[in-house]
Amino acid sequence: MTTFAPFAKPLYVMLKPVSSICNLACEYCYYLEKNNLYKTNNVADKFIMSDELLERFIEQYINSQTQAQILFTWHGGETLMRPLSFYKRALELQKKYGRGRQIDNCIQTNGTLLNDEWCKFFKENNWLVGVSIDGPQEFHDEYRKNKQGLPSFNKVMKGINLLNKYEVEWNAMAVVNDFNADYPLDFYHFFKEINCHYIQFAPIVERILPHDDGRYLASPMEREGGKLADFSITPEQWGNFLCTIFDEWVKQDVGNYYIQIFDSTLANWVGEQPGVCTMAKNCGHAGVMEYNGDVYACDHFVFPEYKLGNIYSKTLVEMMYGEKQQSFGAAKQNTLPAQCRECEYLFACNGECPKNRFVKTATGEPGLNYLCKGFYQFFSHVAPYMDFMKSELMNQRPPANVMQWIKSENL
Q1: Catalytic machinery residues
Q2: Span 46-75, average pLDDT
Q3: What is the pTM of this model?
Q4: What separation in angstroms does the CA of 187 have from each of 38, 100, 287?
Q5: Rounded distance, CA 372 to CA 375, Å?
Q6: Spatial separation of the C-alpha atoms in residues 271 and 220, rounded to whole Å
Q7: pLDDT value of residue 348
Q8: CA geometry: angle at 176 spanning 170 and 180, to 5°?
Q9: CB neighbour list of residue 233: distance below 8 Å, 6 or more residues apart
Q10: 3-state class of 28 per DSSP?
Q11: Is the pLDDT of residue 166 over 60?
């Protein structure tokens, strides 16, 4: 049984200032249905974080940190559906309670509401902006439409152009689904064409399992039943997608384009922290707080059974370092099936995200990750290159040397 010290990692809680409210209606969005958790609340303040709660959170969050650098992450729904004044107030409170400590902010947006005023604010205050975009127009507009069914690509690109105009630091969050996964190089080349050097791939996997309260997605606790959503990527698609892009990246783009899963894989290869929870040995250090103060174990685990409490009745320290959350985090490793424990690439993926562990192993043991076959294909494929880059790092040389090595070996 694996355990870890509660305060070994910094306390990290993502904020949902507008809960699941969004101006888009992306078909694969896992968060839109969360309004069913709060549909009986007072309509007057529904899904809007109060100024009182904002201050309570900021004070607690800053005072709960064990490290000098503090990171605030703002997520949606669509975060820009709160006015700019809300975030200006957040900065005032961070300064008030920070007492000189370094505080950074990052915000995730679909990009459609960005304007000059927003971009000036982000630039002047050094905010990192994550933009959700699923590749070129044909791919992006397949699932990312507004509530009237109209495409969103052109508005997103307008927002990206404004970020570039004001020199705002931004990166791309790209959902990989059943459609765009079949065109990995078209997908990758698009990001290079728009000069996006930091890319995160998010494979979409969801199961449909209707609930009495109106929710329609299966909880990770519900391992049995449910139909795989049509937009979900297959393990084979995921493996082919990663390998195809990696082959171009490792030959000409190392050190120039940063793809999170490749960087995280190399980190695990050399025994460092991967920088993303899905590839880490344990999870549970990254919670999420809803607009009303409810805190959940993780952004992908906003289900009643994973609620830790409310900030009005429990402190963030009590919830995030409490027994329930520590058990949640340790379960990632403790519940691995034998097939994973015996796998030569366990160190590289650590079973990936527990939310995807709903299939059975070859021997019928539950708890295997749905994407296992794809990940295994990827790790097998990249192993020689990762071994070389690991050796370079161990000898204090840049891993980008792998590109010259490939040429010299005619690989």
Answers
A1: 299
A2: 94
A3: 0.94
A4: 37, 43, 31
A5: 5
A6: 28
A7: 98
A8: 110
A9: 176, 177, 178, 181, 203, 204, 205, 241, 371
A10: coil
A11: yes
